[in-house]
Amino acid sequence: MERPPRHRHGPSGRWRAVALAILLSETAADTLSLISVSDEIAMGRQAQQQVRKTVPVLADAEVTAYVTRVGKRLAARAPGPRYPYSFSVANHRELNAFALPGGPVWVHRGILHAAANESQMAGVLGHEIAHIAQRHAADQITKQLVANGFLGLLGAVLGNDPGGARTAQIGAQVLAGGYMLKFSRDDEREADRIGLQIVQRAGWDPRGIADFMDVLRREQGRDPGSVEVFLSSHPAPAERAVVLRKLIGSRSGGTRDSAGFRHAKARVLRLPPAPRMKR
Ligand SMILES: [Zn+2]
Q1: What is d(CA 56, CA 52) in angstroms, rounded to the nearest whole number?
Q2: Closest CA to 230 of 87, 51, 94
């Protein structure tokens, strides 16, 4: 990883950094983000370019259009800023999905293989959309910048960076260590809770995501390698299923499946086997 450029402070820059340090220590909890929505979108665009260079995109326009349709319907019900949400399918067999800052959502083809119905896939997408809507990437990047002593750089960003180009550059450096940001356990719980709301508002059965936790557990027993990455970045599926089912309570109703899902699933099952992720 490239080292960030050293930044020289004049007296005003130094004071700005000190003021920032005080501000950060006072609001350290989790609400503070020094990254604006437009910076976040710029970072996401850069990260998306990197991901497209390394992740094989599924070459099936019909399946991609279907996933995008479901994703957009969910994103329209997301709280928070109106991010330019986009949806891509990676041609990987592992069960995984991830969100980049400010809009891009990726789902692995393996999710379509494993999901039993549309509400399960919608639950996975809803969780990723919730990470974006709740600005978890901006929070994590802020925390990482602080932890790495990049306060001076951040001060420079706040001081004069009208276009957000500098922030995007710094964010890209943070993301360069791995395009999948590690979210906190609190972020994951929030994404489950908000994701559930999004799914319900958009008209799908919220029980889908809880059921998908059972699918993950089954896959863990059958082919541990296929869920390794996913499980390393999320709380245990059994634990999540319990919390999700508590939140859902006795509520039911909403779409469980569709001809569109069955058609897309049948298509991916007919394709040549998906390659494994490179480590
Ligand atoms: Zn998550």
Answers
A1: 7
A2: 94
Q: How far apart are CA 126 and CA 213, in angstroms?
A: 14
Q: What does the pLDDT read at residue 144?
A: 76
| pLDDT tens digits, one per residue of 61-77 | 999 999 999 999 999 99
Q: Which entry of 40, 94, 118, 128 is annotated as an active-site residue?
A: 128
Task: Say how many Å lie between the CA of residue 267 and the centre of ligand 1.
Answer: 27
For residue 104, give the H/E element and its range. strand 104-108
C-alpha of residue 188 to centroid of ligand 1, in Å: 5
Q: What's the whole-model pTM score?
A: 0.83
- Among 278, 265, 172, CA closest to 229: 278
Mean pLDDT rounded to a whole number for the chain:
84
Ligand 1 ion local residues (Cβ < 5 A): 188, 191
Q: What are phi and psi of 98, to 5 degrees?
A: -150, 160
Structure tokens of 63?
């399946």
For residue 246 the two structure tokens come to: 């508590």
190 catalytic, yes or no?
A: no
Of 202, 183, 195, 185, give the one whose Cα is nearest residue 248.
Answer: 195
Distance from C-alpha of 279 to C-alpha of 276, rounded to nearest angstrom: 9
pLDDT tens readout for residues 220-234: 999 999 999 888 888
Q: Which two tokens stand for residue 113?
A: 């293989």
> Helix, strand, or coil here: 57?
strand
